[in-house]
Design brief:
heterodimer; A: 17 helices; about 0% strand; globular; B: about 45 residues; alpha+beta; 1 helix; elongated
Amino acid sequence: MSETFAIPQASRVDEAHIKQAQPGLQFLRLIPGIILLAAIGYAGKLLELNVGKYAKAHHWIFPNIEYVLWAILLGLAISNTVGVPAIFRAGVATYEFWLKVGIVLLGARFLLGDVLKLGGVSLVLVAIEITGAIAFMTLLGRLFHLKPKLTTLLAVGSAVCGVSAIIATQGAIDADEDDSSFAIAAILALGALALFTFPLIGHALHLSDHAYGLWAGLAVDNTAEASAAGALYSDAAGKLAVLAKTTRNAMIGFVVLAYAIYWAGQGQAKSVKNKAAFLWQKFPKFVLGFLLISVLATYGFFNKEQIGALANLSRWAFLLTFAGVGLRTNFREMRKQGLRPFAVGAIGEVVIAVFTLGLVVGAQKIWGW
Amino acid sequence: MATTKIKIEKSSPTKFSWDTWAVLAAFLAALLIRIGVVKHIPW
């Protein structure tokens, strides 16, 4: 089954989501892009190792730039100058696949008790964040006279988990493809900005790794950008950002179901017959994979060396993801999108970022991190 | 506005999603490490 629709070029990068249904097909087409992701990621690692040494040897004052930022910058440079040649695009779009592999394997670095404790804290904050974000984005959409379904898509994208949530909601509420494209473009553009602003704000406010990681996971919308924004701060913050973001992702089914019921009640979407099946269909399965690996690691299924190997494999998977984040971000294309959805998204994101920062600082005081 | 046509493949109930493939790939890797086929992953 297939259908074709027009989508802004800025959202071309979301082929990974769009092609969810046929991962096994045309495998060979993916190889050039995967090699490009690996090459950029590895170049980022080499630059981290060597640029600092070179600068020190020549007595230059040069900030220590980590591989995460190098990989993103290299990807951005290619995407925004020569562009990503067609032969690489299918493989580059697999960055979401590597992200999910990385998240599942990251479970080995979390003991189940930590997951439950931190996940519990995250869950409380996520519930508050989702409620506040949806309410605020809905209000903002009305103030800017956006179409109601576009407002819904922006609200879900900002509140839950970016592009995946928008695509899931679009199908569930029968929204226009154009609305979905606008919402995706706005979320991606704002995610790219967050990559560079969040670490600066975190350092300026002297946030702990714990608080910053939680904040990035709560406030940055797309999972890839949230993971990268966390890892740009520190390894520990990256772990926390992934955990908080994964908790947010786990909520996607409930939020999409609520909107599907609402729009069906308005007579503008199909009704949901089997709610449990709907929830399972929308539930991100990598969350279960992450939990299962964490359980196995906690109960000694892996020894220390094996956990180290799993952790390193997770880092490699994330490295490919970060290269993909840079490669799929094209500022020129993003500028071509409509201003109003972007403005609504931008205002919403700033307010959500401040709101979640307040939540995290409050939680930090309560739990004494 | 610049647009491009993208073919969207809808999932069939018998096929795995990217999501599921990612979980399976991660578990396969974990199994290979667990049974000692892969002993060390450098970083």
